[in-house]
Amino acid sequence: MARYRRYLNRVDVRKNLYLVKQERGRKTVRHPKGAFYNLSELFEELNFQYFGGLMCAPELGWSLRSSRTTLGHYDPSHHVIVLSSLLDSQDAPRIVVEFIMFHEMLHLRFPTERRGVRRCVHTQTFKAAERTFERYKEAREAMTRFLEQAARSG
What is the pLDDT of residues 115-127, one digit of tens each? Predict the structure, then answer.
């Protein structure tokens, strides 16, 4: 198993896997302008605030299904950031939506590292960069409260 994982983590194999995934089809997401939040505007604001406006925007969109467990993800195969449609709600605090977008933007800046058979998605460098979010502690607390409320309401 370790030998197989080392093979899968080779740079040439990863590139081929991404290409195959791209060729299989497009990632289906909802338009970035949601009912309450516009992901394109949010990306640009965060890009200027934290990245000096230098980050190239990927495709952005809302997920087709609401998820309380996966609030966002970056798909490098399709170069797309997807946020859970659960966050496109009047009940979702803006700081939470901003923080999730910022987190996913960091995946563009700090791609997944491979160490032997392990994939390291959230490295120490990534986590340190995440803590540079201006209201980091407040965002984490607001996210916890929002998810607790979402779990109670169904």
Answer: 777 778 999 999 9
